[in-house]
Design goal:
This protein is mainly alpha-helical.
Length: 153
Amino acid sequence: MISYFIYPGLAKVKRTYNGSDLDKAKDILAFLSLEFPDADILGKSRDRFSVTIRQIFCYLARNNTDLSYEKIGNLINRDHATVFFATLEIKDRIKYDKKFLAKYQDYIEFETDTIEKYTKRERDKILEKKIAESKAYTSKNINNTFKNSLKKK
């Protein structure tokens, strides 16, 4: 499978992608995690920025791999309906929201973008770090919510 890698502001570089679709989806996830370190892609955060990056991942994974909605959802701890909605949402936003397109165009305008193929060790390290961050974020929010509820009483 031939695909392209795009860095914002740089030309396309043609590369051959030899990995499986699951590896490609994980590479997309690792790439977005590095590009948007503040986004809680794997966590439960529902802030607008994290949700948008999560939706972009679903859109890219669906359009650049042959993975089912369910398998893509398993990568980010979501169900198939969430992935389906995310891909539709990004398609609509590309079509109608010019501000959105201007902001994220370098990441979503291409059909067969290449996400740099990481070694398995590099990719797993990036994803493990992201998982640890999302767990820490979630437990911190739960603890703060619990403490706040005690203060109110």
